C-alpha cells in the first residue's frame, strides 16, 4: 500500500508539471524570446504575436474592469490610441495603477500649444499579445471615442481660427486635427485590435511565472521521488565509535530498535504533514478564487498553481525537517557523543552500559507523543533517559539523596500568538553536606503517566533510601 501511494504521488507530481507547462509554457517561451516592436506592418500581420507598442496619442478612455464585488474600485483602464502611420485606432488596456503615463499624455493633448511645449510627450509603451476585438467590446470602445474630450475639444474650437492656432498649431495638434477630419473614414469598416499590457497569450505574466515555478517544482519533486523509488531510499550506515564486542557496542545495538521505530514514525508524520499541506493549500486558494468569483481561466492559471506551489514548498519544509531528524545513525552518534562527555573513560562507559543492559525489560519505559519519544531505563546504579533528538540524561543512583517532581505550565510567544505548554519534571539532588538551591540532574516528560511510572520504578529500586518530594 505504501509503495502504491508513493507511485501515485510521483505520477501526480509529473501530471502537475506537464499540466502547468501546457497552461503557461507557450507564453513563457514568448516572454523569454522578448517582445518585438511593431514596425510598419499592418496590425493584421502582427496578430497573435507578443509585441511592444508605443502609444503617443491616447485620445479616449473607459473603465475596462472593476474589482469583483467593488463597483467603485477600478482594476483595469482601457485607452483608445490613435496610430498616425496606419491611420487606425488601437485599444490598449493597463492596470489602473500603471495608467498614469497614459492619463498624462491624454491630458496634455487637451492643453494649449504653449503649455504642451513644456510637457513630457514621450510615448507610453505597452507590451502584450496583439489580438482582434469582439463585436461587443468594439461597441463599448466606440462609445468611448464618441465621448472623447480630445476629439470634442477639436470640434468645439474648429470654427475659431485663433483658438485653432492656440491649440492645434504644433505637430501634436496637427495629428489630432487630421484624425478628426478623417474620423468617419477611419472608423468605417475598421477591424479593431487590442493589446492588454503584461498579458501574453491570454495570461498575465504573473500567472505565467506562477505556472512555470509550479511546473518546475513539481518536476523536481517527480525526479526526486522517481530516484527514491528506484533506489529504495537505501543509505550507507555510519559506523559508531565503539570497539567491536564491547558493552557499549551492544548498548547501541540494543537502542537501535526504538530509535528506528521513532525515525519511521517521524518520516510517516512528515509525509502526512506534507500531503496535508499540499491538499490544504490547493483547496483553500481554489475555494477563495471561487468565493470571489474569479474567472475560470485565472482560477486555473493562478489560484490553482499558486496553491500547489505554496503547498509543495510548505510540504517540502515539513518533509525535510522531519527527515533531518529521522536518521538513526545520526541520533545514535549523538548518544555516543553525549555519553562520552558524561563518562570520559572507556571503563566508565563499559560499566554504565553493562548496568543498563543487565536491567531487563521490567526496568524500561517508553513514551511516544506526536512531537517526541523517550526511553528510560532504571539500572541498579545508573538511571538513564534517552531522548528522541539524541540527548542523554544520566543519573548516578548511588549519589541521589532527594527526588522532586513538579508540573510546569505556562505560555510562550510564537509570532503574534501565545502558545500554552505543560511538562512534568523530575529533579534529582545528589547527597551533599550543604543545602542546594538547584538540582544536579533533571528530566522532563510530556505526560503525567510517564513521570509517575518513572518515579515508581525508582522507588522500587531505592526503597526508602531517598527522600521524595511530590509537587
Identify the notable features of this structure and list them briefly.
471 residues; alpha+beta; 25% strand; four-stranded antiparallel sheet; elongated; seven-stranded mixed sheet
The biggest beta sheet reads:
7 strands, mixed
Straight-line N-to-C gap: 48 Å
Number of strands: 17
Number of helices: 14
* Structural shape: elongated
Portion of residues in beta strands equals: 15-25%
Radius of gyration: 37 Å
Arithmetic mean of pLDDT: 88
Uncertain segments of ≥5 residues (pLDDT<50)?
none
Strand arrangement within the widest β-sheet reads: 1-2-6-7-5-4-3
How would you classify the helix and strand content by structural class? alpha+beta
- Helix fraction by DSSP (H/I, runs of at least 4): 40-55%
Summarize the structure.
With 471 residues, this protein is of the alpha+beta class.
Structure write-up:
The chain is elongated. The protein has helices spanning 2-33, 100-108, 113-116, 135-146, 149-157, 161-168, 171-181, 183-187, 205-231, 247-291, 296-325, 328-342, 346-357, 448-462; strands spanning 36-37, 50-55, 58-67, 70-83, 88-95, 124-132, 193-196, 199-200, 203-204, 364-368, 373-378, 382-387, 392-396, 400-414, 417-430, 441-445, 467-470. A seven-stranded mixed sheet has the order 1-2-6-7-5-4-3. A four-stranded antiparallel sheet has the order 10-11-12-13, sandwiched between helices. The protein is of the alpha+beta class. It contains 14 helices and 17 strands. The longest helix has 45 residues, at 247-291. Helix 10 packs across helix 12. The model has no long low-confidence stretch (mean pLDDT 88).
